[in-house]
Structure formats: C-alpha cells, structure tokens
Design a protein that fits this description.
Layout lengths: L2 E2 L2 H14 L5 E7 L4 E7 L4 E6 L5 H10 L1
Parallel strand pairs: 1-4
Antiparallel strand pairs: 2-3, 3-4
Length: about 70
C-alpha cells in the first residue's frame, strides 16, 4: 500500500482512483489525538492510497489551498 508524502501527489492519485469508478471508491479519515496524526486512506478494494500527517497544524492551509484552485 503506497504512502504519499505530499498532498498534491495524494490528491491526484485519489482523484484518479475516484474517477475510475465512483461507486466503489471510499475515503477513511483517522485522527489520533495522542500524537496529533491524521491518516487519510482512499481505496476501491483493489488499490489503496495513504497519506499521513503527523503535525496537522498546516493541514488546513494545504486543503484550503487545494480547494481554491
């Protein structure tokens, strides 16, 4: 299961996976308060993409910046 390091790479791969078959694609978000990490997983049961943030302070800037473009 590949794990991406940047939001840009992950969002492109997730969008491609979703556009291939929107009825099978799903997203799972898991937040762990103990270490402040957020794990985002996109899957269609055949392929899984992961992105993990350990310090989510900049997460809002990344996501809002992506939504504006």
């Amino acid at each position: 299961m590949p794990q991406y390091q940047t939001w840009e790479e992950f969002s492109r791969a997730a969008e491609k996976l979703y556009l291939a078959d929107p009825m099978k694609a799903r997203v799972v978000l898991k937040y762990r308060h103990s270490d402040g990490s957020l794990c985002i997983k996109v899957t269609d049961d055949l392929v899984q993409w992961h992105l993990r943030y350990y310090k989510i302070l900049n997460l809002r800037n990344v996501i809002v910046g992506d939504l504006e473009t």
